Each structure stands twice: as C-alpha cells, then as structure tokens.
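Worked example 3 (structure in, sequence out).
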C-alpha cells in the first residue's frame, strides 16, 4: 500500500517547465483561489484523494510571490492498511521563474516528518531543516530551478504542441535532476462524465526514485487540456505493482 502513497505525490506534479529566460511578465492560466480535486485509484480501487490549490500571493522578506499547496490523504479503506497524510507548501517569485522554497508535513502510519527547504539564491544552494533540527546545506542550485510542487504550475504557463520536448531543473533540496517530458499526441478523453480535448505528455522517469526505481519499464502519461487553462485532468502510470490513475473530479 505504501506505493500508492508515493504515487499520490509523484503523479500530480512531476513535469514542469520554466518561463523563457529574461521574461519579466507572465499571464497565469490559473486564478488565485483555484483548487483542483483528484481521486487516485490503484487499478479500479479508490485509494486516496489529493488537492492542488493556489493561495493568495504572499510576502517573503518584503518580496511578493506566489503560494501553492498540495494535500494528499488515503481514504478510509486504505487507512486500514496504510494511513497517509501529506501537505506541501511551495513559494515562488511572482513570475514563476524559480522557487523560493517549500515545506512538507507528512504522516506515514504513526510516523510524523516535517521538513523545510529554503532556496538560497545568493549562495546558490538549498538549505534544509528537518524535524526542527539545525539547518544544513542541501544541494547546489542552478538558475531557474523549481521544487517538486511549484514545477507543476510552471508547466501550466507553457504552450504545448505535439512533438515538443520540455526540460527544467527540479530539486527536492537533496537531489537535483533535469526534468524532461515529451508531448506525444493529442486525444479526447472522458473523465467523470466530462469530455476534454487534451495533449498527452510523457515524462522521462529515469531520474525519479521511490516506486519507479524498483519498476523496470515504468511509464507515465499526463492528459492536459488544450485550452488556456491547461488543466491536468488525468495522470496514469504503470509500475511493477500495477496501474495508478489520478482523475480530476472537481475544480473549485
């Protein structure tokens, strides 16, 4: 059951792509206050719920920026086998050109973990505080790096077309990888009774850990609407333990 919870975190916001170098303004396709609700299934079995939310802009040391939140939790049935709760808060600059840091609050069964990652752009490194311990150095940064949540929103400001390859540096504070994905096609799908015209995006999973590291041939596909909102309406992944699907059930 633990692999289900890993998928909740990975499937919703892995691929993302930064605005063009030197860009000073960006039109956001998502409104402040937007909240996306997802149901996550393992095969045909509902296993978890997740949300993605855009909160009002915040002040960070006098600088205005964007604030994103993800929550994930197993449902009552899955709780009997593997209880999981997670919240991630992510902060970026106002034009989504790089991350300023993120925090993670996680409960796995009875174990609770807290972690704060600060992107120190003066030192060009991440700084990590875990379970309120003393801050320590993380990984060296590269320009335009995002954390694993803000990268999802950076992805939504880019125009897609079939055949396009997208790349961006992503870090969880401890490891930095070059995220890469390809737009492999376009198709209509029906999710919870609503039909969407979507681009189909395939991320490159070679740099992902967790469930993918143990799954030779693991694949993932993300269906993103072709309209100006660029909503991710479905994410599906095949791994060694079967198929996981996250479907958009509501937009608030």
């Amino acid at each position: 059951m633990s692999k289900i919870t890993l998928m909740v975190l990975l499937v919703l916001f892995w691929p993302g792509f930064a605005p063009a170098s030197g860009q000073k303004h960006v039109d956001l396709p998502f409104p402040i206050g937007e909240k996306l609700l997802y149901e996550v299934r393992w095969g045909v079995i509902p296993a978890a719920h997740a949300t993605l939310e855009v909160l009002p802009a915040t002040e960070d040391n006098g600088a205005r920026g964007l604030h994103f939140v993800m929550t994930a939790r197993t449902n009552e049935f899955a709780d009997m086998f593997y209880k999981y709760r997670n919240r991630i808060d992510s902060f970026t600059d106002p034009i989504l050109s790089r991350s300023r840091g993120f925090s993670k609050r996680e409960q796995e069964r009875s174990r609770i973990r807290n972690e704060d990652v600060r992107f120190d752009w003066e030192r060009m490194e991440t700084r990590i505080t875990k379970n309120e311990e003393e801050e320590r150095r993380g990984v060296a940064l590269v320009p335009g790096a995002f954390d694993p949540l803000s990268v999802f929103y950076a992805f939504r400001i880019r125009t897609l077309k079939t055949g396009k390859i997208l790349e961006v540096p992503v870090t969880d504070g401890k490891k930095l990888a070059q995220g890469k994905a390809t737009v492999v096609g376009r198709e209509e799908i029906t999710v919870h009774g609503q039909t969407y015209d979507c681009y189909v995006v395939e991320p490159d999973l070679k740099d992902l850990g967790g469930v993918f590291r143990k799954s030779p041939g693991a694949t993932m596909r993300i269906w993103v609407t072709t309209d100006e909102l660029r909503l991710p309406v479905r994410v599906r992944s095949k791994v060694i333990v079967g198929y996981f699907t996250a479907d958009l059930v509501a937009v608030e």
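Notes: Residues 2-251 form one domain. The longest strand covers residues 45-60.
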